[in-house]
Amino acid sequence: MSRQRIAVIAGDGIGQETVPAAVHCIDAALARHDTRLDWNFLDWSADRYRRDGAMMPSDGIETLSGSDAIFLGAVGAPDIPDVTTLWGLLIPIRRSFQQYINLRPVRALRGVASPVAGGDRIDLLIVRENNEGEYSEIGGRMYAGLPEEAAIQASVFTRMGTTRAVRYAADLAATRRGLLTSATKSNGIVHTMPFWDEVVDDVVRDCPEVTVRPLLIDALAARLISHPAEFDVIVASNLFGDILSDLAGAIAGSIGVAPSANLNPERRHPSLFEPVHGSAPDIAGKGIANPIGQIWSGCMMLEHLGHREAARELEQAFEEVTAAGVRTPDLGGTGSTEDVATEIVRVLDRMPAPTGTDAR
Fold first, then answer.
1. Across-strand partners of 127?
2. What fold characterizes domain 1-99+257-360?
3. 3-class DSSP state for residue 290?
4. In this predicted model, what pLDDT tens digit does every residue of 19-33 receive, in sequence order?
5. For residues 67-82, b (16+ Cβ closer than 10 Å) or e, as one string?
6. pTM of the model
7. Which of the chain's ends, N or C, has fewer CB atoms near its CB within 10 Å?
8. Topology classification of domain 114-252
9. What is the mean pLDDT of the chain?
10. Phi, psi at 4, each rounded to 5°
């Protein structure tokens, strides 16, 4: 059987440190099952933009299309506008490959303190619509440089796009506690959010095992801080989901441990796996970046590729490491990126030999 081919884009900043650490841990987890991945490392980054004027080559999407998955570190540099780095790499990948679901699990890890009461019991999934909504390309500027300069940005919500995101979230909720929270703002955003609410109602009407609770985004954010353990699955638009997942990651102890998957659920195209955190130029090169968000994203990738047991073991290993106190400074520890990765591999090596093989 041919090896699964993974396109690896370490990108910028701490991505250059967390990605190699994660690849090392993923290789160690798979080695226990006599399996390997074929890693294809690509130098698509801000450095490439400075050199060639583009984040990726003109045939970049075609290059990625032959991959079974894409493993991304982080994108962004202080001297290049974010609109250039993101729209030059990540967003074209999401849209070209119809990765319309952004799945972000948030769970308290053993040994990791939450900054809020009850945060040590947080265990939820955020389903973010990933291809449209507030992140549209429709709009522009006029009267540039004049006092009346104006910028217009249009949000785009389609019935198909909203329905498939809500359906995915409802199906997930049905496998868990059956609680679906819908992030809305229909009291203030007069067209798109009432439309969102209508679609949510239409979808959940066919899911009797799921209870839906619409919450205004500001109240939801406050409730997530004051009562984090009550949430199960949250479905949100592109912008709201982006903000909520960062907030939830901080409640769990650090955005450095937060993973995500950009999914094409039909598997007609490769899916992309990346940590929620950015390139963090303030700590890049210091060797103290938390690799767990990247490693956990790798676990999601392994699960997606069919290596379920290896994914489970790798999750168990990094949680044993946090519980044992080997943590980076963002979690109150003194460990380095390498320290954490090395200890995770040691934990994997000490685990009993697998009794079976991963299903694919």
1. 103, 235
2. Isopropylmalate Dehydrogenase (3.40.718)
3. coil
4. 999 999 999 999 999
5. bbbbbbbbbbbeebee
6. 0.93
7. N
8. Isopropylmalate Dehydrogenase (3.40.718)
9. 95
10. -75, 140
